[in-house]
């Protein structure tokens, strides 16, 4: 039995195999050698085609097709099926199961919208999304834990930033948040130290894959169809105002309208309909460590650092999970493939595309110190321990076990600016005009999913001139 299997027997084997820490060094080395001689370890030969050779005349036909079975696609399909019961709607997903992208590899936190720029879509959709998701989970009997959260300042500079964050959170309408001093912090998180903290009592945790499956049940009950293992590789004009949606396996479906919610592949799918290449998706891996089960009692709720305002990441945090374990992470390192869950997941095609992208090169030059620090702590658990011991001093190296990882779809433009907010887009030309693309759905996209779905449904009704 490996160390990984020991910390959580419930984690799927595939996830364990994609874990970074604990991979034998020779495997990492051999991967790089192969990469240098130009061998792709993973044949991810994504095909981007705007024109397809032959259209199947009798391919199944729908009014609307949603591409992408993560939480955003599934919430959108559900919302539309409930709003328009007379419409025939299907969802296609490239993987054999739903929620295998970012939705199935995240912190599992229900955010309350504390951090985000007032008035931004991120702030508005998160605050509304959190309200909607709690109501939904109560109605559907989905288990969650409103265990709360503290954002902890450990020095004077962080205290100043924390105060600014608190003001922002109030403007965003976050409910019942309070600034607490070191003593009060101890009463909330007895093992955590800090000078001052924001306490958010309504922040919670949930299994977002479980929520996605509930959306899928609602969708199919309302008459929707789900096609898994259907990787869209191109769109073309078909007869009777339809769009032919071609899959990599040769199948074709037809639909009058398309909405794509493709996470790590959102730019590539949007480009298939004539949309611009930017914002481009750069995959940023977030690795987690897992607290040894004997130390989980040290963490009651979510413990977050004061975030670095230069980056759209919330920082390495302690998060209790629904199974009783506690994760510590995620960090932020460049992934070497769109689905690069470990250092050995390398796609030459993806890597070449990333390195040829001027935006990423500019970002790397500007933030090389941050990147190098994250990489160092990724490879050196002792360095990561030093960072997290600031909050829980009682931890030792053996308390932190290697854990799973997720990959963020970081949308970026060619100046190297990271898109912090949600981005929605429409395709170009006769076919593209009948498509909407969710090009950037960053964290807290899972929390916001029901609010995003409402917004996309309104946008689709407007753009496609649907009437209820
Ligand atoms: C490390 C990490 C931690 C996070 N923590 C949180 C958190 O605590 N709380 C929170 O609210 N949010 C969190 N997020 C953000 C949240 O997970 C995402 O915003 C959300 O999951 C995005 O959902 P999505 O459906 O847009 O993308 P995804 O879940 O990535 O789904 C996209 C789907 O499209 C499919 N697809 C792609 N291309 C094709 C194609 N050509 N044909 C068919 N299907 C295709 C993919 O297989 C995938 O299933 C976190 C994200 C990460 C990475």
Describe the structure.
The chain has 468 residues and is α/β, with parallel strands linked by helices. It folds into two domains: 1-39 and 280-418, no CATH class; 61-105 and 209-279 and 420-463, FAD/NAD(P)-binding domain, CATH 3.50.50. The chain is 33% helix and 22% strand. It is built from 15 helices and 19 strands. The strands form four sheets. Strands 1, 2, 8, 9, 10, 11, 18 and 19 form an eight-stranded mixed sheet that branches. Strands 12, 14, 15, 16 and 17 form a five-stranded antiparallel sheet that branches. Strand 1 (61-67), helix 4 (71-83) and strand 2 (89-92) form a beta-alpha-beta unit. Helix 4 runs parallel beside helix 8, helix 5 (121-140) packs across helix 15 (449-463) and helix 12 crosses helix 13 (381-389). It is globular and about 70 Å long. The termini are far apart. Residues 1-56 have low confidence and may be disordered. Bound molecules: flavin-adenine dinucleotide. Residues 67-73, 92-95, 100-103, 105-109, 111, 231-232, 261-265, 269, 286, 330, 406-408, 441-447 line the site of flavin-adenine dinucleotide.
Spatial separation of the terminal alpha carbons: 57 Å
Helix count, DSSP H or I runs of 4 or more residues: 15
Mean pLDDT: 88
How many domains comprise the coordinates?
Answer: 2
Rg over alpha carbons: 22 Å
The poorly predicted ranges are: 1-56
Cofactors and ligands present?
A: flavin-adenine dinucleotide
Largest pleated sheet: 8 strands, mixed
Structural class: alpha/beta
Percent helix, as a range, is: 25-40%
- Overall geometry comes to globular
Beta percentage is 15-25%
Write down how many β-strands occur, each being a DSSP E stretch of 2 or more residues. 19
